[in-house]
Amino acid sequence: MPSSADVDIVIQGVEHDRGFIDVRIYLDAETWLKENQTAEHIVVQATKGEVVVPLVTFQGGTLAAVVYHDENSDGKLNTGLFWRPKEGFAFSNQYSPKGPPRFPKAAVDISDGEDLMVRLKY
C-alpha cells in the first residue's frame, strides 16, 4: 500500500511575481483536464525565477501535471487564437502538445522523495 510521498513540483522559468501559479494534478486519463476532477489543485503566489510547490495528498505513482502562471489573477488560463495560451504554462514530462493534450504523453512515474521539474513556456 503506497504511503504519502514527499514530492515537490519545481516550476522554473517564472517571468515575474505578478499573479499566481496554478498547479493541477491528474492521476488517470478518465479525469484528465476535467473540471473539478483533479487529484490535487494548488494555487500559490508567483515568484520570479522558480517556485516550489509541495504536493499534499499525492500517494506516489503515476501523475500528470498541468501548471500555468495566472498572470492577471483571473483564475483561468487565458488563450488567444486557436486556444494558444497567452500566459506561461507547462505540462509534466516536458510535454508540448501539437493538438489536444493527452494524459499518457504528460504522465510520469514519481517515487517518494523525488521532485517533478517543469519549465513554463510563455
Keywords:
122 residues, mainly beta, globular
Give your account of this protein's structure.
This protein has 122 residues and is mainly β. The chain has one domain (8-119). 3% of the residues lie in helices and 38% in strands. The strands form two sheets. Strands 2, 3, 5, 6 and 7 form a five-stranded antiparallel β-sheet that branches. Strands 4-1-8 form a three-stranded mixed β-sheet, with no helix packed on it. The mean pLDDT is 93.
Give the total of domains.
1
Radius of gyration: 14 Å
Mean pLDDT: 93
Strand residue content: 35-45%
Biggest pleated-sheet summary? 5 strands, antiparallel
The topology string of helices and strands comes to EEEEEEHEE
Q: What form results from the Cα inertia axes?
A: globular
What is shown here, in short?
With 122 residues, the chain is mainly beta. The chain has one helix spanning 103-106; strands spanning 8-14, 20-26, 40-45, 49-54, 61-70, 89-91, 108-110, 116-119.
